[in-house]
Amino acid sequence: MNPSKNALFLGTLAHFGVGIIFSFTYFLLWNWGIFRINFQDAVLIGALSGLVAIIVWKTYLILHSQPPEISQLHYFIALFLAHIVFGIVSVNVFQLITDNPEFWYQLPDNVSLRSGIN
To answer: pTM for the complete prediction?
Structure first.
Protein backbone atom coordinates (compact mmCIF):
# COMPACT_ATOMS: atom_id res chain seq x y z
CA MET A 1 0.00 0.00 0.00
CA ASN A 2 1.56 3.25 -1.16
CA PRO A 3 -0.59 6.30 -0.40
CA SER A 4 -0.26 9.25 -2.69
CA LYS A 5 1.10 12.59 -1.48
CA ASN A 6 -2.40 14.04 -1.89
CA ALA A 7 -3.91 11.35 0.34
CA LEU A 8 -1.21 11.90 2.97
CA PHE A 9 -1.78 15.66 2.87
CA LEU A 10 -5.57 15.29 3.18
CA GLY A 11 -5.19 12.73 5.98
CA THR A 12 -2.84 15.03 7.89
CA LEU A 13 -5.18 17.98 7.38
CA ALA A 14 -8.19 15.94 8.53
CA HIS A 15 -6.32 14.71 11.63
CA PHE A 16 -5.25 18.25 12.49
CA GLY A 17 -8.87 19.43 12.03
CA VAL A 18 -10.20 16.71 14.33
CA GLY A 19 -7.60 17.73 16.94
CA ILE A 20 -8.86 21.32 16.77
CA ILE A 21 -12.46 20.12 17.17
CA PHE A 22 -11.49 18.01 20.21
CA SER A 23 -9.56 20.94 21.71
CA PHE A 24 -12.51 23.27 21.20
CA THR A 25 -14.81 20.68 22.78
CA TYR A 26 -12.46 20.48 25.79
CA PHE A 27 -12.52 24.28 25.99
CA LEU A 28 -16.33 24.31 26.06
CA LEU A 29 -16.52 21.53 28.66
CA TRP A 30 -14.06 23.37 30.92
CA ASN A 31 -15.77 26.69 30.32
CA TRP A 32 -19.16 25.20 31.23
CA GLY A 33 -17.75 23.67 34.41
CA ILE A 34 -18.19 20.03 33.35
CA PHE A 35 -14.47 19.33 33.74
CA ARG A 36 -11.89 21.09 35.87
CA ILE A 37 -8.48 22.16 34.66
CA ASN A 38 -6.43 19.60 36.57
CA PHE A 39 -4.39 16.47 35.95
CA GLN A 40 -7.14 13.98 36.87
CA ASP A 41 -9.68 15.53 34.52
CA ALA A 42 -7.02 15.82 31.81
CA VAL A 43 -6.39 12.07 32.01
CA LEU A 44 -10.15 11.40 32.08
CA ILE A 45 -10.92 13.56 29.07
CA GLY A 46 -7.95 12.06 27.21
CA ALA A 47 -9.14 8.54 28.01
CA LEU A 48 -12.68 9.37 26.83
CA SER A 49 -11.25 10.83 23.63
CA GLY A 50 -9.14 7.70 23.21
CA LEU A 51 -12.21 5.49 23.51
CA VAL A 52 -13.99 7.58 20.88
CA ALA A 53 -10.95 7.27 18.61
CA ILE A 54 -10.83 3.49 19.09
CA ILE A 55 -14.52 3.16 18.20
CA VAL A 56 -14.07 5.32 15.09
CA TRP A 57 -10.97 3.44 13.93
CA LYS A 58 -12.42 0.00 14.70
CA THR A 59 -15.49 0.92 12.63
CA TYR A 60 -13.26 2.20 9.82
CA LEU A 61 -11.19 -1.00 9.80
CA ILE A 62 -14.33 -3.15 9.73
CA LEU A 63 -15.84 -1.20 6.83
CA HIS A 64 -12.61 -0.85 4.82
CA SER A 65 -12.44 -3.13 1.76
CA GLN A 66 -8.70 -3.73 2.24
CA PRO A 67 -7.80 -2.85 5.84
CA PRO A 68 -4.11 -2.58 6.64
CA GLU A 69 -2.55 -5.65 8.19
CA ILE A 70 -1.64 -4.32 11.63
CA SER A 71 -1.86 -5.55 15.17
CA GLN A 72 -5.11 -3.87 16.15
CA LEU A 73 -4.50 -4.51 19.85
CA HIS A 74 -1.17 -2.70 19.77
CA TYR A 75 -2.56 0.07 17.58
CA PHE A 76 -5.52 0.67 19.90
CA ILE A 77 -3.31 0.67 23.00
CA ALA A 78 -1.04 3.28 21.38
CA LEU A 79 -4.08 5.27 20.23
CA PHE A 80 -5.56 5.26 23.72
CA LEU A 81 -2.30 6.35 25.39
CA ALA A 82 -1.68 9.03 22.76
CA HIS A 83 -5.07 10.57 23.48
CA ILE A 84 -4.33 10.65 27.21
CA VAL A 85 -1.13 12.56 26.38
CA PHE A 86 -3.17 14.87 24.12
CA GLY A 87 -5.61 15.55 26.98
CA ILE A 88 -2.77 16.36 29.38
CA VAL A 89 -1.06 18.66 26.88
CA SER A 90 -4.38 20.36 26.09
CA VAL A 91 -4.99 21.06 29.78
CA ASN A 92 -1.50 22.50 30.20
CA VAL A 93 -1.91 24.76 27.16
CA PHE A 94 -5.36 25.81 28.33
CA GLN A 95 -3.97 26.53 31.81
CA LEU A 96 -1.19 28.62 30.28
CA ILE A 97 -3.71 30.63 28.26
CA THR A 98 -6.10 31.24 31.16
CA ASP A 99 -3.29 32.08 33.62
CA ASN A 100 -1.81 34.60 31.15
CA PRO A 101 -4.66 36.63 29.66
CA GLU A 102 -2.26 38.42 27.34
CA PHE A 103 -2.14 35.12 25.41
CA TRP A 104 -5.88 35.15 24.90
CA TYR A 105 -8.36 36.11 27.62
CA GLN A 106 -9.32 35.07 31.11
CA LEU A 107 -12.49 33.07 31.62
CA PRO A 108 -14.98 34.60 34.04
CA ASP A 109 -15.12 32.77 37.36
CA ASN A 110 -18.93 32.82 37.40
CA VAL A 111 -19.59 30.76 34.24
CA SER A 112 -21.74 27.66 34.65
CA LEU A 113 -23.65 25.35 32.36
CA ARG A 114 -26.92 25.66 34.26
CA SER A 115 -27.18 29.39 34.75
CA GLY A 116 -24.91 30.89 32.08
CA ILE A 117 -22.93 33.96 33.07
CA ASN A 118 -24.23 35.40 36.34
So the answer is: 0.74
